[in-house]
Design a protein that fits this description.
It holds the Pfam family NTP_transf_3. InterPro entries: MobA-like_NTP_Trfase, Nucleotide-diphossugar_trans. It comes from Aureimonas altamirensis DSM 21988. By secondary structure, the protein is of the alpha/beta class. It has seven helices and nine strands, in the order βββαβαβαβαββααβα. The protein has helices at 33-42, 57-64, 81-92, 110-119, 145-148, 158-163, 183-188; strands at residues 5-11, 27-28, 31-32, 49-53, 70-73, 97-102, 125-130, 133-141, 167-171. The strands form two sheets. The protein has a seven-stranded mixed beta sheet, with helices on both faces. A two-stranded antiparallel ribbon has the order 2-3. The longest helix is centred in the middle third of the chain and has 12 residues, at 81-92. It is globular.
Length: 196
């Protein structure tokens, strides 16, 4: 039986660099990015999805509640990324691995997700790369629970990757490093600014 991998969609951030627009409400082919990324994950071999929202949760939740994802609200989203990572990881147990997926990655396709899952073996950490450089998403093994619990502030999985002895790299190209942290990035990737 293949190992069970679940995903955590990290969607709690403030989108401060795209203000006054929320980047996850930017649309691609008429679909908000937050909906698009969850649909792509849902079409993959993942065993389950949890989405962690925070800032503007009241606007994001109605868009995704009908999708195949559990929705959690991080009450301390202003405290940084680590809180969402820890909350999502705990929600993913007792899976063998938990994939951390920033919600703002418009080039990420279902095939990329399946390639990461295929590379995962229990106890290993899987990292997507772009021309060899480690990027996102990553799959954290269940055995890293204690290490995940030590994260704080605006820290994602990068330190955990550095400290892990067994790291498997999966080349995804630009899909692994493209995010929409700015309005320019939204427009250059074919997105449209939300009408809000």
């Amino acid at each position: 039986m293949p190992p069970e991998v679940v995903a955590v969609v990290l969607a709690a951030g403030r989108s401060s660099r795209t203000a006054p627009h929320h980047k996850l409400l930017a649309t691609y082919d008429g679909v908000p990015q937050i909906v698009r990324i969850i649909r792509r994950l849902a079409a993959s071999r993942l065993a389950g999805i949890t989405t962690v929202v925070g800032h503007d949760a009241d606007r994001l939740r109605p868009l995704i509640e009908a999708l195949p994802t559990r929705v959690l609200v991080n009450p301390d989203h202003d405290g940084g990324l680590a809180g969402s990572v820890k909350m999502g990881f705990a929600a993913g147990m007792p899976a063998d691995g938990v994939m951390m997926v920033p919600a703002d990655m418009p080039l990420l396709e279902t095939a990329h997700i399946d390639a990461l899952i295929a590379a995962f073996v229990p106890g290993s950490l899987v990292v997507a790369t772009d021309q060899g450089a480690m990027r996102n998403p990553v799959i954290l093994p269940a055995s890293m629970a204690a290490a995940v619990d030590t994260l704080s502030g605006d820290t994602g999985a990068r330190r955990l990757v550095r400290d892990c002895e067994s790291v498997r790299l999966v080349e995804l190209g630009a899909a692994a490093s493209c995010d929409i942290d700015t309005t320019e990035a939204i427009l250059s990737t074919g997105g449209h600014l939300p009408k809000d």
